[in-house]
Amino acid sequence: MTRSAESEAAIAVVRRNTEEVQGKGNFAVFDEVFSEDFLDHTPQPNMVPDKEGVRGLYAGLRKAFPDFHAVIHWQTAEGNLVTTFKTYYGTHRGTFLGIEPTGKTIQFETVDAMRVVDGKITEHWGVANLYSLVGQLGLQLQPKG
User: Fold this and answer.
1) CA dist 105 → 125, 132, 133 (Å)
2) Residue 143 contacts by C-beta under 8 Å, 6 or more apart in sequence?
3) Is residue 145's pLDDT more than 70?
4) What DSSP designation does 38 have?
């Protein structure tokens, strides 16, 4: 079974975001691949669910982890909706979630879905293993009760 041209084009846009914006900090590409009316259905805490919110998230991650990058394990698409499973890597060189730099190398997994319309990312849904990440940075989360 082959992918449709729409799916192939959508995957290419999402991959470009992962590799060039997240992985290299190229925010000129960010403006090329994100729609002005972008909506994040699963924003991170204290982030607004729009284009500027995701720009702030990406910038914050790059500041905290200057070598931040992802390895894409697989991507699939149904029409213009792309699902990606990837692992992020980086070295903790700046404050992140209130945690001062530790110099530790981190990794955490993510699964997300992005809708691409007319070559631009318009929507996002995602789940990241932030519990693992904060544990790697030395924060011990205690269960309530």
Assistant:
1) 26, 12, 10
2) none
3) no
4) E
User: Where do the domains of the chain lie?
Assistant: 5-136
Q: Do residues 61 and 92 touch, judged by C-beta distance below 8 A? A: no
CB within 8 Å of 50: residues ≥ 6 apart: 38, 39, 40
Q: In the chain, count H helices and then E strands.
A: 4, 5
- Tell me what the pLDDT averaged over the chain comes to: 94
66: how many CB neighbours lie within 10 A of its CB?
Answer: 13
Mean pLDDT of 50-71: 96
pLDDT one-digit tens code per residue, 90-143: 999 999 888 999 999 999 999 999 999 999 999 999 999 988 998 999 887 666
Q: Report, at the CATH architecture level, how domain 5-136 is classified.
A: Roll (3.10)
DSSP assignment letter at 66: T
Provide the token pair at 43: 């924003």
List the 120-128 sheet strands across, edge first. 34-40, 120-128, 105-117, 81-91, 69-78
